[in-house]
Amino acid sequence: MSRLDYVFTSESVSEGHPDKVCDRISDTILDAFLSEEPQARVACETFATTNRVVIGGEVGLSDQGKLTEYMANVPDLVRGAIRDIGYEQEKFHWNTVKITNLLHEQSAHIAQGVDASATKDEGAGDQGIMFGYATNETDALMPAPIQYAHAILRRLAEVRKNGTEPALGPDAKSQLSVQYRDGRPVGVTSLVLSTQHLDESLTSADVRAIVEPYIREVLPEGWLTDATEWWINPTGKFVIGGPDGDAGLTGRKIIVDTYGGAAPHGGGAFSGKDPTKVDRSAAYAARYLAKNVVAAGLADKCTIQLSYAIGVSKPLSIYANTQGTNKVDEAAIERAVSQAMDLTPRGIRTHLGLNRPIYARTAAYGHFGRAPEADGGFSWERTDLVETLKRSV
């Protein structure tokens, strides 16, 4: 039997965190290539450190002339992303950072396993396992600790960027320890926030005075009590932030990107990968299916696992685990989700409309638990399979 009374902790990091800077750059480059050609192939990795950004990986367009042209645009894309995040530090400034572009054409051996032909369907871009998860403990059907850890940093980014709180810098981290009783989140036992600040004279108490109203604004009423422990900038000053303070890499925040540790992760990162890479697209599909299972009332919690082999179109396995919260047999849920959606790489991209430049916005504050957008962004957060799943079981 699952425990009903416990404390669970998740963390988030802001768009100015060094790893998130790299995720944003990689996804910005991906969006640029998808804007040119929806079938573009991109596997873009970014490394950032003091006054330096290095881009590497593989890209592919059907028109080699355009590929050369878009390669030349990469430095401008990098600078634009850094500028939007807000870095104008002496040793990490969008206008002066040195950029090395090592992108090259996609491997023909990878392409041959993925590309469709007259005799075979398009295959998965790699082997691997992908997980999706949903729980009815929040309106977004996400675990509360990660959902609210994201919400805190997203709100602080808003007031930093609109000029309301000019003392805040781009780099920040949050962490929430949430008390569960009878299996439901009821309060915060401890809260950690470290945020970069531009005024060197600010103390930890000064920073708390700035951020506390916004934290209270986004957390549910009554979750912060006199017993809640606050740790705001616990090491003291935090003036040097971003890649100047600590090197960053694409793909190092996969638990922040997903469920905050409340559900398994297959290990693959998302950012910088076009949707033929099932590390990304099948993880989105698994979240979509799990969310619709919970939204349909078939379970209070649901984990969906999918597995793939490179060059093979259909998933090798589909697994559902509801942690004992299911209202119907888990085998019936597995059958229902397999019938509700074509889970080949092409089927996922078509159903969710993934061949669009919708990825830079996913690079911070979580890939899941966001509202579906009119242009197709966060399409995997729709709950349009509810009736189909209900009929299938």
Architecture overview:
- This protein is α+β, with helices and mostly antiparallel strands.
- The chain has helices at 18-36, 64-85, 108-114, 144-161, 204-218, 254-257, 278-295, 330-340, 345-352, 386-392; strands spanning 6-13, 41-49, 52-60, 88-89, 92-93, 98-105, 128-135, 168-181, 184-197, 229-232, 248-249, 301-308, 317-321.
- A four-stranded mixed β-sheet has the order 1-8-9-10. A four-stranded mixed β-sheet has the order 6-3-2-11, covered by helices on one side.
- Strand 8 and strand 9 (184-197) form a beta hairpin.
Query: Alpha-carbon distance between the termini?
Result: 25 Å
Subunit organisation of the chains: single chain
Main sheet?
A: 4 strands, mixed
Share of helix, binned: 25-40%
Radius of gyration: 21 Å
Apparent shape: flat
Whole-number mean pLDDT? 94
Q: Could you tell me the number of beta strands?
A: 13
> Uncertain regions: pLDDT < 50 for 5+ in a row?
none
How would you classify the helix and strand content by structural class? Answer: alpha+beta
The H/E string reads EHEEHEEEHEHEEHEEHHEEHHH
Strand content: 15-25%
Neighbour order of strands in the largest sheet: 1-8-9-10
Tally of alpha and pi helices:
10
